[in-house]
Structures are given as C-alpha cells and as structure tokens.
C-alpha cells in the first residue's frame, strides 16, 4: 500500500515534536495565524476602498475648496 496510514502520521508528529519542541510549534502556529489574519484584513480593506472608489466617482462638484484653489493657482 502506497498511502499513509494513521501510524505514519503519528510517528511523523512525534518526530516533529521531538525535534522542535512544543513551545516553538506553538509560537509558529501563532505567527502563521497572525499572518493569515493580517492578510485577510488587508484584502478586505483593499476591496472596501476599491468598491468605494467605484461607487462614488469624483466630479467637479465633489472637489473641496483646497482642490479648486490648487488648480486655479497652477
């Protein structure tokens, strides 16, 4: 049989725990989880800014006084 049995997985897990220790594995899990969380947050923020820009196109009426004054001075 070429597949992995439950015993192969158990032996592999024991070897990994013995090599790295539980504290390093716990820290690694926290780091990976934090990175995934930050990635999802940045993707969500990117989608919100893109949809906001699409929904409200900027026209002359939406420009602020500072924008109008800077265009007049140039």
Automatic annotation (TrEMBL):
Task: Give the protein's function.
Answer: Part of the twin-arginine translocation (Tat) system that transports large folded proteins containing a characteristic twin-arginine motif in their signal peptide across membranes. TatA could form the protein-conducting channel of the Tat system.
What name does UniProt use for this protein?
Sec-independent protein translocase protein TatA
Name where it mostly resides.
Answer: membrane
Q: Which organism is it from?
A: Acinetobacter stercoris
Query: Which compartments is it annotated to reside in?
Result: Cell membrane
Give the way it sits in the membrane: Single-pass membrane protein
Subunit structure, interactors included:
The Tat system comprises two distinct complexes: a TatABC complex, containing multiple copies of TatA, TatB and TatC subunits, and a separate TatA complex, containing only TatA subunits. Substrates initially bind to the TatABC complex, which probably triggers association of the separate TatA complex to form the active translocon.
Spell out the molecular function terms from Gene Ontology. protein transmembrane transporter activity
**Which positions, given as ranges, span the membrane?**
6-22
Keyword Transmembrane helix appears in the UniProt entry: yes
Give the UniProt keywords, A-Z: Cell membrane, Membrane, Protein transport, Translocation, Transmembrane, Transmembrane helix, Transport
């Amino acid at each position: 049989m070429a597949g992995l049995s439950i015993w192969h997985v158990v032996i592999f897990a024991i070897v990994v725990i013995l090599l790295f220790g539980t504290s390093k594995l716990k820290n690694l899990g926290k780091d990976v989880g934090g990175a995934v969380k930050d990635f999802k947050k940045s993707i969500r923020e990117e989608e919100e800014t893109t949809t906001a820009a699409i929904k409200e196109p900027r026209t002359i009426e939406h420009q602020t006084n500072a924008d109008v004054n800077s265009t007049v001075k140039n």
